[in-house]
Amino acid sequence: MDDDAPDALAQIKRAAAAHARAQKREEETRLALHAAIVEAFRQGYRPVEVDEVSPYDRNHNLRLRKGAEVPGVRERKAAEQD
Question: Residues 5-17: pLDDT tens digits?
Fold first, then answer.
């Protein structure tokens, strides 16, 4: 081993710890993004409006809405007419 070079195992440990922190942060921001998308649907925004600002495609946004059991625009209008 070269005495002048940093210890490779210590580098791996530091890099692995940084990677774990980044993964945790990614999960937190992903959940926050999903909550914001669902909230936009709850507030009555149309799918096309959500799609314009979301990094996800239309189908994924709609899966998030349906998963949160938020009625769609047509469903809300039908319920209002009843």
Answer: 679 999 999 999 9
Phi, psi of 7 (to 5 degrees): -65, 125
Domain ranges within the chain, ordered by starting residue: 8-81
Q: How many beta carbons lie within 10 A of that of residue 44, not counting itself? A: 10
Angstrom distance (rounded) from CA 28 to CA 20: 12
d(C-alpha 73, C-alpha 50), whole Å: 13
User: ∠ CA 47-52-57 to the nearest 5 degrees?
Assistant: 70
Q: Looking at this protein, which amino acid is placed at residue 6?
A: P
CA distance 56 to 62: 10
In 3D space, the residue among 42, 43, 41 whose CA is nearest the CA of residue 51 turns out to be 41
What would the pLDDT profile of 40-59 be if each residue is shown by its tens digit? 999 999 999 999 999 999 99
The C-alpha atoms of residue 82 and residue 19 are separated, in whole angstroms, by 53
